[in-house]
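Sample intake sheet
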Amino acid sequence: MKILINSINYAPELVGIGKYTAEMAEWLAEAGHDVKVVTAAPYYPDWKVFEGYSAYKYMTETKDGAKVIRCPLWVPARPSGAKRVLHLVSFALTAFPVMIWQGIFWRPDILFVVEPPFFCTPGALLSTVLGRGQSWLHIQDFEIDAAFDLGMLKSKKLRLWVSSVESWLMRKFDRVSTISDRMMDRVINKGVAAEKTVLFENWVDTELIFPLLDRPALYRELGLPENRTIVLYSGNMGEKQGLEIIIEVARLFRERQDILFILCGTGSANQRLKHFAKDLDNVVFFPLQPVEKLNELLNLANIHLLPQKSGAEDLVMPSKLTNMMASGKPVVATAAEGSQISRVLTDCGMVVEPGDVKAFYSAVEYLADNPDSANRLGINGRAYVEAHWNMNDVLSKIFVN
C-alpha cells in the first residue's frame, strides 16, 4: 500500500511521539509498503531545532526506508499555553499544501495523521477526499483537552466551541485509534462510533530494552557513587508531569546517603527543577542519553518514577512507561485509582494519588528497603511488556491481521 503519515514529531527525536511514529514508518517500509511522512524539523524535547535542520524551509530526506518531507514551523524557546497553540497551528498551515499535493498526485491508500496537532485534521481529511483513500486519525495525546484541563487555556466558551469542532472532525475519519482503553472511552464520548475505533497501543522493542544482569558501564561513565539505590526519572521534563514532586520527595530523603535521585532529560521545566533542587546533594541531573545507551540508562535504576499531574493520566498514556517496565525495574507512579496507568501497574509497581508527597515518599521508601519485593514487581513488569507491548506483535495486529 501507499501510506502517508502526517505527524509533527519524527526521528531523530529520541522520545515521545516522534520515536513511535518513526519506528512505525520503518516497520511499514520493511514490510514492503511505500511510506511517505509529512513532518517538521526535529525540535523535541529541547524546543530547539536540531543541528542540520531548519525551522524556516521545506526539506526532504530518505530515512529508514521512508521518504520524509519536513515543513517549516515556529518553535518557541519558552512554550506557554498560547505559544504551544501557535506552534501547532504553524505546522498545520505549512503542512497543508504538502498534504493536498500528496493527495492529488500521489493518491495514498491510507492517510495516517497523528494527534497532536489536531489542527492537521482538516488538511488530512481534504487530502483523503482528493486522493480517494482511507483516513485514519491516531491520538497519542488529547492536546485540546489537556490545554483546558491543565489550565493552559481557560475560556469555557472557547472550550465548548473547539470541542464541538473537534467532535465533528473526528467523526469524519474512517478510523480513529488511540493508545489506551480509557482514551478509547474518551474518543467514543466525543461522538465517534465504536465500530470506527481501534486500540493501537504503544510498544517496546524488547530486543533493544531488556534487563541487564550486571551494573551498566554507564554507571561509571556518569561518575555515580557506589552502593546507592538509584531512583530515576528519564524523559521529557514538561508541564504535564508535575515533576516537582520528585524534588519534594528527594528533600525528605536528604538524610539518607544510600538513595540518589537522577533526573535525565530535558524540556520546558528543566531549569525550574534545577533551581528547586539546588540545595540538595541527593539529586543529580543529566541530559538525554544517546539512543544506543537507552537500555543502560534504564538499567541504572533500582526504581523508576512516573509522576503526572492530576487529571492528565487519561489524556495521555506516557510513552516512557513501556520502556521502564521493559527494563525489569519497578515503577512508582502518580495516577488516580481506576486510571489506565493504575490498572497496568497493579502488579508491576506502586501507584499513589497525584500530588500526594507523603504517599510518594512512602512508596519509594518501601521499594528501596524491600529489594525482593521491588525485584518481583520488576519481573512482573517485564512479563507484562512481553505479553502485551512487543513491537512486532502490536504492529502486526494493527496492519496485518
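Comment: Residues 217-388 form a domain with the Rossmann fold fold (CATH 3.40.50.2000). The first helix runs from residue 17 to 30.
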